[in-house]
Amino acid sequence: METLVAGRACGECQVCCITPQIDTPDIRKTSGVACRNLTGTGCAIHTTRPAVCRGFYCGWRILESLPDDWRPDRCGVFVLLDQTMDLPVQFRLRTAVILALVGNPLKTVRQRWFQDYVGRSVLAGVPLFLSVPPRNGNQMARVMLNTSTMRDAAASRMAARIKDELEKALKAVALYPPMKYVPVHGGPDMDGAG
Ligand code: SF4
Ligand code: SF4
After folding, report:
1. Per-residue confidence (pLDDT) for residue 1, from 0 to 100
2. Does the pLDDT of residue 113 top 50, yes or no?
3. What was the pLDDT predicted at 191?
4. Which residue's CA is the nearest one to ligand 1's atom 4?
5. Which residues, other chains included, contact 60 with Cβ-Cβ below 8 Å and sequence gap of 6+?
6. What's the predicted TM-score (pTM) here?
7. Which ligand 2 atom is nearest residue 22's CA?
8. Pairing of strands 28-29, 22-23
9. Cα–Cα distance between 75 and 116 in angstroms, integer?
10. Which of 60, 74, 97 to mutate to test the pocket of ligand 1 (most atoms within 8 A of CB)?
């Protein structure tokens, strides 16, 4: 069980029940499609929800370093932590931080609060990725933000330079050819029926 940041609660947020691919024997859903158990008021099987749901928390619930007002449904950034990624050896931190833009991606990368976080994190050596979650069952494309040009922009402390780098990263994500996710567990929900 992860240690959660005190004072942060999911509230009405449902991003993790809609945005990611879930591919387990209990819950199978495509990316960008609401789980079939999601109702207007939340999870219909909340008390008996499977382990994959019980054990999941987004980065905002776990990372003290994220601002309090970064609840995913409110700020448009769904932070995912990935300990399985094969990161370059120079990173002391072995958990990748993926910033999945679930709101208006271009608007988000033009926000000063987002640029400040990216600049701080890149300078601190956090393995950082930018992603725009797919809405149609494709795999999630992502690009690494720890580039030399981003580090230079962050070191300059000029928000406009960080914004330019983020806009370039966003274009690079968009250029990724769509790759269909191949589910391990079959079932009707994998067809996008939710
Ligand atoms: S995305 Fe994060 S804040 Fe939102 S419901 Fe899931 S765990 Fe809670
Ligand atoms: S079972 Fe409930 S908690 Fe799990 S993804 Fe579906 S709606 Fe969300």
Report:
1. 66
2. yes
3. 45
4. 13
5. 5, 8, 66, 70, 71, 72, 79
6. 0.92
7. 5
8. antiparallel
9. 14
10. 60
Quote the CA–CA distance of 43 and 176 in Å, as a whole number: 33
Cβ-proximal residues to 137 (8 Å cutoff; 6+ apart), any chain: 21, 30, 31, 32, 33, 180, 181, 190, 192
pLDDT (0 to 100) of residue 52: 94
Residue with tokens 């993926």: 98
Q: Which residues pair with 35 in a beta bridge?
A: none
pLDDT of residue 44: 95
Mind listing the pLDDT tens digit for each residue in 138-152?
A: 788 899 999 999 999
What's the pLDDT score for residue 189? 58
To test the ligand 1 pocket, which listed residue (16, 27, 63) has its Cβ within 8 A of the most ligand atoms? 16
Q: How far is the CA of 38 from the centre of ligand 2 (A)?
A: 6
Largest CA distance in the chain: 51
Beta strands, E only, the chain: 22-23, 28-29, 38-39, 42-43, 77-82, 96-101, 128-131, 142-144
Write the residue with the smallest CA distance to atom 8 of ligand 2: 17
> Which tokens hold the place of 179?
């790759």
Atom of ligand 2 at shortest distance to CA of 35? Answer: 6
**CA separation for the pair 178, 156 (Å, rounded):** 35
* Distance separating alpha carbons of residues 54 and 46, to the nearest angstrom: 9
Residues with CB under 6 A from ligand 1: 10, 13-16, 57-58, 60-61, 71-72, 78
